[in-house]
Amino acid sequence: MQTWIFIALLFAVLWGLQFLLTHYQLKNYHQTIREMSKRGSGYLGVGRSKRRFGKGVVMVLVADVDDVVVEARKMEGVTVFSRFEEYSELAGQKMSSLLSYEAEPQLQQAIVSAVEKIEVTKADKERQG
Fold it and tell me: How many angstroms separate the CA atoms of 22 and 108, rounded?
């Protein structure tokens, strides 16, 4: 009986720890989005690529009105310890060139997804006038 209580207690502690660490990762995500969306003009796009098992990639792009990437940040990893970091390789590139950007498949998928989100946002803004 003691063993089952110990296992249940250990499970509860680990579950609580996972909840806490996930909370801090989401807090970092929202802070990054807030920081990057404070630009005066331009567009923000978030793309992600996630496998069922293995690392995931989240790419946040900010492009100006001339379709040039102003800032890019990438979060990549398997655990809740992953944080966003600057991805300066994309800064200064035209959005259209990112569709053929050579990168590992998951990163490429996240970049393309972020570009598509920006294109949708631009189209919506143009329709609204």
Answer: 25
Q: What is the mean pLDDT of each run of 10 residues along the chain (129 residues)?
A: 90 93 90 86 89 86 92 88 89 89 90 93 82
Taking the model in full, what pTM does it have?
0.82
Token code pair at residue 52: 């069922």
Report the CATH number of the 2-128 domain.
3.90.1010.10
- DSSP string over the chain: -HHHHHHHHHHHHHHHHHHHHHHHHHHHHHHHHHHHTT-SSSEEEEEEEE-SSS-EEEEEEEE-TTSBEEEEEEEEESSTT---EE-GGGTT-BHHHHTT----HHHHHHHHHHHHHHHHHHHHHHHH-
- The whole-angstrom separation of Cα 101 and Cα 104 is 10
Per-residue model confidence (pLDDT) at position 86: 93
